[in-house]
Amino acid sequence: MARHANIAFFIPHLGCPHRCAFCSQRTISGEEAAAAPETVRAELEAAFARELDPASTEIAFFGGSFTCLPRERMEEYLAAAAPYVRRGQCAGIRVSTRPDGIDGEILALLARYGVTAIELGAQSLDDRVLARNGRGHSAADVWEASRRIRAFPGAPFSLGLQIMTGLDGEDAESRSRTREGVLAIRPDTLRIYPTVVLEGTVLAERLRAGTYHPPGVAETAAFLAPMLAEYEAAGIRIIRVGLHASAKVERAVIGGAYHPAMRELCEAARFRRRMETLLAGIPPGEAAVAVHPRALSRAVGQKKENLRWAESCGYRLRLVPDSGVELDGLCLLFPEKAEIRVLRPEERTGSDCYEFALPHAFPGGHWNADSFLLPDGDAGIGRLAPCLEQVFPQFAWYGPQKVPLSAWARVEALAREDAGLAGFFAFVRRWLEGRRGEDFFWILGI
Ligand code: SF4
Asked: Of 338, 357, 382, which residue is a domain's last?
């Protein structure tokens, strides 16, 4: 049977105008020197001597700034690969490069040799973060290169973006700017690389000097979980989360978010978010939730962390495999019906809902990843309405309502008779742990 294969060549640092603060391409690729064009030719010949599935085989040049290579060298690589595309032996050629390494002439050259996919190392869409990490290009370069790739006559290229999280200087706002930019550019593919601090880089020096504090694995998984959902909902195919694991990388890691199964951790965090909102709708006790059999391990989480979390919240949770459930879904089996429906922003399907926002999230836009939502009606905010109106006679149903924690305690006390809401109030207490010392939150009628 013909086999799927990606025939990848790493071109570390060749063509790269400088060193970014995080970069140690030789460690990441595991290659000390770039493959010479003759080596590429020989390896391609050997690879295609096997029976490969043309539709799912790609030749890829990764690891550097391909279009910044000396022209002659770039054409030698492309000339080695092009015959296999022309003869229909593979689906195409994929290259990765810097956003400022793209112009009309380069694109015409790539198209001539049969390049079908271009991945741009965008890393961030915040100029401050780009500058702080020595990228040498701006966010505008990313937008412009993406536009040119998309607009090239005949649309021969698929557009990929590579972004990083946890770079020096990144905060929730810059992360959100990058997220919004990615959603607006809507690349065909996306690779997400949480920053891993490697020995020998500028970031390693800053880490040691105590001027840079990269987010770790758990924090990264928590903020990436809702982003993955949003990107996928926008039709963006996420083809990688985290560096390829290798002994060489592991030896060089001195900080940041390295985990050999980073994507699985993020997926487990996604299920945990869904579990949190699903269980918030029912009182603590027995619960059974159906999950697609292929998603079972992600729902359980690494070392059963999601089940242990449910237990710590008072739920004896049983996960029941059911192929009728969507691959990334959860369906409540017992009790049969939630008392109240709680959603995360990435789960919303319409806008008739009330956003519960932490103080740092508002003003500053809606659908913050830290927020949760209650829909309109009896299975949502309507269930709380009588208590809210007793505590706030002028409750701002159509605008931001500031909710001091002392007032919320009165709402909770008034609702105590409604035993079905016990899970919801416990959920809100846990959610409020995410605030940064403030003594209020917002309810935003939208
Ligand atoms: S442009 Fe790419 S290859 Fe060059 S230093 Fe930066 S990350 Fe490394």
From this structure: 338
Report pLDDT digits (tens) over 328-353.
Answer: 899 999 999 999 999 999 888 776 89
Residues 247 and 380 in one domain: no
Ligand 1 in reach of 26 Cβ (< 6 A): no
Residues 93 and 171 in one domain: yes
Rounded distance, CA 205 to CA 279, Å?
44
For 364, the domain range is: 340-446
Centroid of ligand 1 to alpha carbon of 132 (angstroms): 14
Residue 163 pairs in a beta bridge with 123, 192
Through-space distance between the first and last CA atoms of the chain, rounded to whole angstroms:
55
43-59: per-residue pLDDT in tens?
A: 999 999 998 999 999 99
Give the residue, out of 11, 31, 62, 65, with the most ligand 1 atoms within 8 A of its beta carbon, to mutate for a pocket test: 65
* Dist CA 382 CA 415 (whole Å): 12
The structure's pTM equals 0.90
Same domain assignment for residues 84 and 232: yes
135: domain CATH number is 3.20.20.70
